[in-house]
Amino acid sequence: MTDQQKSKAELIRELEVLRERVQQAEQPTGAAPDPWQLCNQLLADGCHFVFDITDGRLCWANDDAKTLLGYPDDALAWPPPARFLSSELGALLEGVPPHAGPLEGSLITKQGESIPVEARLCQLPQLRAGSRLVVARDCRKRVRSLNALRESEERFAQFFERMPDGVLVADVETRRFLDANPAICQMTGYAREELLQLGVDDIHPESDLERVRGAFMDQASGKHPSACDLPLLRKDGLVLLTSIHSVPLSMNGRPCTAGVFRDVTERHAREEALRRSEAQLRTMLAHADLILFSLDQDGVFLSSEGSIPSSYGSAPSEAMGHSVFKLYKRFPAV
């Protein structure tokens, strides 16, 4: 078939095939036909922007960026970068070298909300000269976590400083003190800096160290979190009685225990005075011709102390649990 005999449709089809072959020959082997699709394939996580640094305009944004910021699909309809990039991120368009470390800043939505992000420059050989690819990742979850951690640490610090009971943090292995609150400084008479040079053995009488060490290890292992009536040796040599409750924790990657000290010296003194007073009263009642007792509504003895003449029969101590009407029915005076 000669050229004159070919139909117009056949000639058009041959021209299209020839044009496709020319385009394939001009395209480098393995080159991506669409650099925007390549951005999405290689950088699937985050918001992607391509800027023309010659005039600062946005050339392209991926779907995540459009959804997050609320701007239209057509990048040409977006406002200038200064409207949706914070000043910190603007540095990425002003000479920050490619592959520089991430910058922290904000993306500004169409509604004016500021979203914290971490952004960096990336390079792709398929992008033409004068273009810059910026990848920004939403940091709101990380920022919330960091804020929550900071607030928790601040609350703990306030609680630690203002707690009325003394607190000492000790390394489980070395038994050296790592932290001390103001209350324990007042209780021991040592300044905080002095306590941090000491350990468990330094604040207890030498005669009680074996018991103290055993209690410390029981607390550190969680076997017995509380220890009662442990003597505390003050800097001035005065000995206090304390109850200690421990809480396990980690500090600088090392196992530690926080001991909460409560001074029970005055309470023990009051309890001892009460015991002596009760003993004296019992002695007086035992030698007096009188009886102190309490009865329930049926006349049964609930308590009975004192002494009465033996002619009355049962002694007060023998009356517990019995009815007064049966034991002393022959003695109306009783």
Large-scale geometry: elongated
Overall pLDDT metric: 80
CATH superfamily of the largest domain: PAS domain
- String of helices and strands: HHEEHHHEEEHEEHHHEEEHEEH
Distance between the termini: 147 Å
Return the domain count: 3
User: What is the number of helices?
Assistant: 11
| Assigned CATH class of the largest domain | Alpha Beta
Biggest sheet: strand arrangement: 2-1-5-4-3
Structural class call reads alpha+beta
Low-pLDDT windows of residues: 24-33
Strand content: 25-35%
CATH architecture term of the largest domain: 2-Layer Sandwich
Number of strand segments: 12
CATH fold naming of the largest domain: Beta-Lactamase
Question: What is the alpha-carbon Rg in Å?
Answer: 43 Å
Helix content: 25-40%
Question: Biggest sheet, open or closed, and with what strands and sense?
Answer: 5 strands, antiparallel
Topology:
Layout: H1 8-26, H2 35-42, E1 47-52, E2 57-61, H3 63-69, H4 81-84, H5 87-90, E3 103-108, E4 114-122, E5 131-138, H6 140-162, E6 166-171, E7 177-180, H7 182-188, H8 192-195, H9 209-221, E8 226-233, E9 239-251, E10 254-263, H10 265-286, E11 290-295, E12 301-307, H11 324-327
Antiparallel strand pairs: 1-2, 1-5, 3-4, 4-5, 6-7, 6-10, 8-9, 9-10, 11-12
What does the model show?
The protein is an alpha+beta fold and 334 residues long. It has three domains: 35-139, Beta-Lactamase (2-Layer Sandwich), CATH 3.30.450; 163-263, Beta-Lactamase (2-Layer Sandwich); 268-327, no CATH class. Helices cover 34% and strands 26% of the residues. It is built from eleven helices and twelve strands. The protein has helices at residues 8-26, 35-42, 63-69, 81-84, 87-90, 140-162, 182-188, 192-195, 209-221, 265-286, 324-327, and strands spanning 47-52, 57-61, 103-108, 114-122, 131-138, 166-171, 177-180, 226-233, 239-251, 254-263, 290-295, 301-307. Strands 2-1-5-4-3 form a five-stranded antiparallel sheet. It has a five-stranded antiparallel sheet with strand order 7-6-10-9-8, sandwiched between helices. A hairpin with an 8-residue loop joins strand 4 (114-122) and strand 5 (131-138). It is elongated. The N and C termini lie far apart (147 Å). The relative contact order is 0.06.
